[in-house]
Structure formats: C-alpha cells, structure tokens
C-alpha cells in the first residue's frame, strides 16, 4: 500500500521560509514523478511544482517561480519543497502527489498524502 506523508508545515510571517517534506513508502519511488499541490479554503486544488524521476527536470506555477524549489532524494524516498519569501496568499494545505504523467492536473496523480498546513501571517 502506498503512503505519502507530508511534514514541515506551520505558522510563519510574511517573508519567512519553510521546507516541506514528503516521505513515500509502498512504491518504487524513483519510478514516479512527484508533484506538490495546494488548496486554500473555498478554492480548488492548484498545481505548485513537479519534479521528474531523476530530479533533473522541474516545473513551477508562475505564482511560486523564483521563490519555491522542489527537490527529491531517491535514496530517502523523499521529495521536498523549499518555500522562501512566503506571502499570505501562499496560505493553504500543501499536498504531495505521485504519478507517472508529470502533468499539472491533479486528476493525473493516483497517489496523495494527507497534507500539511502552511499559514502565512501578514
């Protein structure tokens, strides 16, 4: 059974940084493309970042480009999201997802974590 477990969320101030982690088990981690998505209250889940199987290829939503960095460590079965210069509009539940398509569409990812909350105060 596949498990994705996020950690690292919290309450921070504008301009602060956080690093989210997502530990995977029950799958051959290096065979999966991993993504981060977020969902704010009353809004649809939206794409944040995606990373290819080896970690060489990445893509970001325009809203986070230049501030967030996605990375992975296949020896630890973990994907990370380094978030810098956080803004109040980054406040959301953050979810990691695993799939094989590498798209920006949440429906293309069969495996999901339970999420971790990030709250950025102004």
What is this structure's SSE topology?
Blueprint: E1 3-7, E2 10-13, E3 18-25, E4 33-39, E5 46-51, E6 58-60, E7 68-73, E8 78-83, E9 92-99, E10 111-112, E11 116-121
Parallel strand pairs: 2-11
Antiparallel strand pairs: 1-3, 3-8, 4-5, 4-9, 5-6, 7-8, 9-10, 9-11
Question: Can you offer a commentary on this structure?
Answer:
Helices cover 0% and strands 50% of the residues. It contains no helices and eleven strands. The strands form two sheets. Strands 2, 4, 5, 6, 9, 10 and 11 form a seven-stranded mixed sheet that branches.
Task: Give a quick set of tags describing it.
122 residues; mainly beta; 7-stranded mixed beta sheet; globular
Order of helices and strands: EEEEEEEEEEE
- Count of distinct strands: 11
Binned strand content? over 45%
Counting copies of identical and different chains, the oligomeric state is single chain
Low-confidence stretches: none
Terminal Cα span:
40 Å
User: Per the principal axes of the C-alpha atoms, what is the gross shape?
Assistant: globular
Radius of gyration: 13 Å
Helical residue percent? under 10%
